[in-house]
Amino acid sequence: MTEFSGTTDPDRILPLLWRHRTARPATTGRPPRLSVDDVVAAGIAIADAEGLAAASMARVAARLGVATMTLYTYVPSRNDLVELMVDDVLGGRLLPGPGDERPGTWRDQILLYADRTIAMYRAHPWLSHVSRVRPPLGPGMLRESEYVLSTLGAVPVERRNTAAVTITMFVTAAARHEGENAQLRRDGGQSNDAWWGQRGQLWEQWFDVEQHPSMTQLWNAGGFDRGPDQQAADAFAHGLRLILDGIERESEPQSSDTTGLRSSPMP
Amino acid sequence: MTEFSGTTDPDRILPLLWRHRTARPATTGRPPRLSVDDVVAAGIAIADAEGLAAASMARVAARLGVATMTLYTYVPSRNDLVELMVDDVLGGRLLPGPGDERPGTWRDQILLYADRTIAMYRAHPWLSHVSRVRPPLGPGMLRESEYVLSTLGAVPVERRNTAAVTITMFVTAAARHEGENAQLRRDGGQSNDAWWGQRGQLWEQWFDVEQHPSMTQLWNAGGFDRGPDQQAADAFAHGLRLILDGIERESEPQSSDTTGLRSSPMP
DNA sequence: TCCAGTTATCGTAGGGGCTACGGAAACCCT
DNA sequence: AGGGTTTCCGTAGCCCCTACGATAACTGGA
Predict the structure, then answer these.
(1) What average pLDDT does range B30-41 have in this prediction?
(2) d(Cα B242, Cα B1) in Å, to the nearest integer?
(3) A153 touches chain B (CB under 8 A)
(4) Cβ of A4: how many Cβ atoms within 10 Å?
(5) A180 touches chain B (CB under 8 A)
């Protein structure tokens, strides 16, 4: 199940997210053995390998060779540590910023965003455990917002943000699904297909054909022949295409395709 | 953050999900003080009021007036308890089954599904903490699958399941978002808008205008005037409409709207 | 040299959580 | 009344987060 985050103090977490150097590096006092980046990197490494729950304060500290309580010098709480880990990984997609090279059409730009996001959730499945409703307001998250919006210059401003949020929500949901899948596969040592196979008794022993005629009909027609992972992939590709088609259609000023989103590169 | 579930034994959880009465109610031995339904109901009540984490074995047992370990007579583990809670709540939507009355058009049938699902996540925000990649294979979950598929009779069988999964994934993601929102609002005693307001310093102190031209431009054009909750609602309505439009369009045999999905009621 | 002053390190302890194990309790039937 | 069976639950082990306070390590000035 998913951890959420408790309330965090914006006055503490924002400077951390942006790696604010408190005036000068502080010339007095005992010098630190670690940095915030060290702690975040250790947390990510453990979470990547064994899941977010394994990235406990004790485990992270052990990996860094310090006592558990030492971490609290660098990070206010475990929740804040997770938030830092998330923003770090979000930024790790290296989505093109202003001036950077990028694909020519807005569609390919969105597909780049989608691909990198899915890859990110595959590489860091623990991301799926973190809600993104109130995301970390750090450079990684803002870079995503900027990139997605920058691909939608041809959408009228009144509708542009709705389009961006629609795309972001859909892609994030699909990636989260994929990440949950990867995590379950690793933790249980069992693929999704194997999991379903192990539950074959459902159909013979518990499934009621009378109550589920549409499923039965589709089953007999071979509609479930593709495994659950393929189904999810199909649905993602299909849904994204429908959404992009719709946005494109709604952005055409009249009915022709001489202007508007259709294959318009970034200005 | 989100809890996931560990591996569960299908031979134990499936009979529980379907509330298998082990042959006869067992006439010998000490009679039980509770039922599985009691335990599940208590878990749901606590989770509804205080979140999934609060629904610990100790808290559930206390609410039922028994010792903690007593629960393990009814339920193999806390993970299994959560799975039972989920299937119970999924079934609680009471989506129309075969023969039950339902809206006339497939679109309205899908909207019924979407509305009830969102309402479910609002009423039981803890659902957002549970992955639905390997869902509980109980009556509640199957009822959902049957209903969604039953609305798509006009989609060609080869594409029907993809359409169903696309819709389900999108609606579930939106509902999960809404549930996370409700949970954060309750736990932090703070609305989403208030949360953003509290972080106003982001824009003055940390935000880099040079690096985020598209955001800045849209901000100045009033593109962010609607708060985050309204944006999410807009995106959900918009995305669902685009997906349903696309499915409808792809299901029209030719180009006219005399047959196909367009306003075709269930057979 | 030595001593504040300052910052980092971390041991202890308190409050929760899940659940394996095994003994006690409660009931039916003979 | 006694045996068989099922439920009930106290104990204890292991893990997690973090408040608090004592201690260590370093700088700069006297």
Answers:
(1) 96
(2) 31
(3) yes
(4) 25
(5) yes
